[in-house]
Structure formats: C-alpha cells, structure tokens
Write a structure and sequence with these properties.
- This protein has 101 residues and is mainly α.
- It has 6 helices and 2 strands.
- α2 crosses α3.
- The longest helix is centred in the last third of the chain and has 10 residues.
- The chain binds a DNA duplex (13 and 13 nucleotides) through α2, α3 and β2.
Length: 101
DNA sequence: CAACTGACTGCCG
DNA sequence: CCGGCAGCCAGTT
C-alpha cells in the first residue's frame, strides 16, 4: 500500500460532521510529523477519488480552512454536515474535532 | 541532479 | 497576537 492510500484510508474514517487536521491524519496513517505530506496527498486527489474520500473534513491545526482549492465549497460541504463556523471562519474544536477514536 | 514549491506545524522573539 | 523559520517529503522545473 503506498503512502497516499494510507492517507486516504484514514481520511475515509473521519465521521460525518467531524473534522481533523493534516498532522493527525498523517500520524494515524503511520507518518508522525508529516502533515505536509497529508496535504500533498489530498491535493493530488483526482475528481474520481475525490468522490470517495471526504477531503473536505481535513483542515489546518487552527481549525481554519486554509487550502487554496475551493475553500468556499469545502465550507459549504461541512456546514451541510452540521459543522458550524464562527465569525472568523474557524471550527470549534471541542464540538467537531475528531482524533481517531 | 540541484533548487523550488506547497491542501502543514510548532517554536521563538 | 503575529511574522519568521526550520523540519518534512513528493512532485516539478
């Protein structure tokens, strides 16, 4: 199994309505401190794969959407699942964060 | 083959 | 609170 698939496998485990950050995804996939790679893997998703992997449930450590792909779409998808953003566009970690449980 | 770049992060001043 | 900086690693130039 290659590195990307390891990453995707973890992202697929994120429960609906929950989010996590790149570092956590990488760590759960077996690559601690490789947050950047997790981000790179998601960036490399093809449209086909994007429909199978909930990439929008992954945000940065601060709880913000920082990707440059389609931040508007990502926020929309999350809100559809019930995730709430505050006035600064940040997600409440206490309510929506997922740590691999 | 060296240098750059990027959906990241934590530490430091 | 905020910008700078060094690790990380794969894909591009």
């Amino acid at each position: 199994m290659n590195t990307y698939e390891e990453i995707y496998a973890i992202v697929r485990r994120i429960p609906l309505g929950r989010v996590t950050n790149y570092g956590t995804v990488a760590a759960l996939a077996g690559y601690p401190r490789h947050a950047r790679m997790a981000g790179y893997a998601l960036h490399a998703l093809s449209d086909q794969e994007a429909s199978e992997v909930p990439w929008w449930r992954v945000v940065n450590a601060g709880g913000f959407i920082s990707n440059a792909y389609q931040p508007q779409l990502q926020r929309e998808l999350l809100e559809t699942e019930g995730v709430v953003f505050d006035s600064e566009g940040r997600i409440d970690r206490k309510r929506f964060w997922w740590d691999g449980a």
